[in-house]
Amino acid sequence: MTTVELTRFHVAPGDVSRLLAARPAMLADFRADRAGFLGAWLVRLPGDEWLDIVHWRTAGDFADSRAKGANLPGVRAFFEAIDHVVSAEAGTAVEDEDRASGTDGTA
């Protein structure tokens, strides 16, 4: 089953444009360097907080990615725009995108 990484973090108001500018390169680095990376969604929350929802093929792929840290310039630039991490956790997806959107006829 797919592993879902949920990272909530704070970005100072003056660093939002830097965070958003760094996002495409971070995603490109993940696609090139992180086995099992399936996709990510960045959500802006109230109070200068953000939520990054990242889908991984397996928990092992997620663990391998965490071990690499900010090993590439695009990842590093994105991480450097973050003031501090509020919380980080992972779970297992119980439905896929097709099922959640009803395109498989079950919703």
UniProtKB/TrEMBL annotation:
Check the record and name the InterPro entries matching this protein: Dimeric_a/b-barrel (IPR011008)
Highest taxon above the source species: Bacteria
How is this protein named in the record? ABM domain-containing protein
Species, as recorded: Sphaerisporangium dianthi
